[in-house]
Specification:
Structural class: mainly alpha
Radius of gyration: 25 Å
Order of helices and strands: HHEEHEEHHHHHHHHHHHHHHHH
Helix content: 55-70%
Largest sheet: 2 strands, antiparallel
Strand order of the largest sheet: 1-2
Mean pLDDT: 88
Strand content: under 5%
Length: about 500
């Protein structure tokens, strides 16, 4: 075929599938939009007005810092050659020869006991550059989710040090173990698109970080209203729609699994949102936008471990459980537990991501369908407990995988924060906590005067008003124009 479809063109090697490459780049862009601007907008609007700039900046900084660290070192730690059974050998991923070659995850090759090859390494039909960027977007959103637990009080300088350290010593371990050919991957633990690697790890790490950083001031804990509910919905909408790339891009191809995953993802999110909203109406008498967003997130996180491996009716069931169990853990168990109440998880990331992620992983161990597993998974004869005798073993594997990710994040996050604390305070000073964005960044989110203060002309006099008063004193006949209107909020 001639023109752009000619496989002999220098930029179109014979292994390149343009459709797969286009879909993978689209998926990567969708996942990137979840973070920038999705979570930037959501974080900025869901917090108290005085923390809007700081919350948005934490997400913005993490997105940029993760990308640089990813290509310098971390991509190969997560998807490169083996260093340890749970960690890859780090190195740069920016050489043009490396990035132009066909994508490959070397440690995903499977061998029989006699040394013969059982399954070749994963080699999608697009270049390494596409794979490196796609996986970066997952690393970025995971780190940004951790920030949700410490909004409103973490020292921004401590956060700037935390991001690269946590990426190196925590995220890459989970990614390599479950996706990059590590011991959990070869053992057969299912994590289709990040229920454990992303949601469980970010929820646990966020909870641990919230413990070590300490709580917000009591006034903020008692009253922390969102400053812009409509912008919250805009950020949440980007998060929801971006999830089609999140789970649709996981098979590394525009194939059957991708289509099933996209449908299941959206269906679970819708079901969970409705369940959460109904529970709010039943127990509190009215629905809330924040509750609906939390239900949406738990439905998305809950279906992620098995989105392309379960039947659509199972996605509805996962949505029901994702909308009810995290709700109960947040509204009932949290309020009855003194220990849980001592940890100030600002955006309840532990419940919306860790609880939902582990719940989805365990339900995948029950509902994973053998006909769908064979299309994607490396270990033969993999299926959920409801589809054969091996299902019980699969459920046990899911438990072990969740335990490993949980313990590793507790230990690594603790050590990282204690190391940072030796040089940088983890928490802002009390004076800065009382002021907010202006103390942390010298900026405020909205150019609006008020916040309940009475207007004081001596404090808020403009340069033009001073000029006009000076003119009146010098020239009694001077007549000034309209001074405008002061709106007291």
């Amino acid at each position: 075929m001639a023109g752009a479809y000619d496989a002999s063109l220098p930029s179109v090697p014979d292994w390149l599938n343009k459709g797969d490459n286009a879909w993978q780049l689209t998926s990567a862009t969708l996942v990137g939009l979840q973070s920038m601007p999705g979570l930037v907008i959501l974080y900025a609007s869901i917090v108290k007005k005085k923390w809007a700039v700081n919350s948005a900046f934490m997400a913005l900084y993490a997105f940029a810092a993760v990308l640089l660290c990813w290509v310098l070192l971390c991509y190969k730690m997560a998807f490169g050659d083996e260093l340890l059974p749970f960690w890859g050998r780090g190195g740069p991923a920016f050489d043009q020869g490396y990035l132009k070659a066909q994508a490959k995850i070397p440690e995903t090759v499977r061998m029989f006991g006699n040394g013969t090859m059982e399954k070749e390494a994963t080699m999608p039909f697009f270049p390494m550059a596409t794979l490196v960027y796609f996986q970066f977007t997952f690393a970025a959103i995971t780190t940004i989710l951790v920030a949700g637990s410490v909004l409103g009080r973490m020292n921004i300088k401590a956060w700037m040090a935390f991001v690269p350290l946590w990426l190196i010593f925590s995220y890459t371990v989970g990614a390599y173990s479950l996706w990059g050919g590590g011991f959990l991957y070869h053992w057969g633990v299912i994590d289709y698109s990040g229920g454990y690697v992303i949601h469980l790890s970010s929820g646990v790490a966020g909870f641990v970080a919230a413990y070590w950083v300490g709580p917000r001031p009591q006034a903020d804990r008692e009253r922390f209203p969102p400053n812009n509910v409509l912008l919250m919905l805009a950020g949440a909408g980007l998060l929801w729609m971006g999830w089609s790339g999140f789970n649709g891009g996981a098979p590394y191809a525009a194939n059957l699994t991708a289509s099933i995953a996209v449908l299941n993802t959206n269906l679970s999110a819708a079901t969970s949102l409705l369940v959460w909203t109904c529970l709010d109406v039943i127990f509190f008498g009215k629905p809330s936008v924040i509750g609906a967003i939390q239900g949406m997130v738990t439905g998305l996180a809950g279906v992620t471990p098995g989105a392309g491996l379960i039947q659509t009716w199972a996605a509805i069931i996962i949505g029901i459980f994702s909308g009810s169990i995290p709700w109960a853990s947040m509204m009932i168990i949290h309020k009855k537990s003194t220990l849980l109440q001592q940890v100030d998880d600002t955006l309840v990331v532990f419940y919306t991501h860790a609880v939902a992620g582990i719940l989805g992983g365990l339900l995948t161990g029950l509902f994973a369908h053998p006909d769908l597993c064979v299309l994607l998974l490396p270990v033969p004869n993999t299926n959920g407990a409801f589809y054969g005798v091996n299902g019980g073993k699969q459920f046990l594997k899911q438990l072990v995988g969740a335990a490993f990710v949980t313990v590793w994040n507790v230990v690594s996050t603790t050590l990282i924060l204690l190391a940072i604390k030796m040089f940088i305070p983890l928490r802002m000073a009390e004076e800065e906590l009382g002021i907010g964005d202006d103390a942390a960044h010298g900026e405020e989110a909205y150019a609006l005067w008020g916040d309940g203060e009475k207007f004081d002309a001596t404090r808020h006099e403009t340069q033009m008003q001073q000029f006009e008063r000076d003119q009146e004193a010098a020239h009694p006949s001077y007549v000034h124009g309209a001074r405008g209107v002061t709106i007291v909020l």
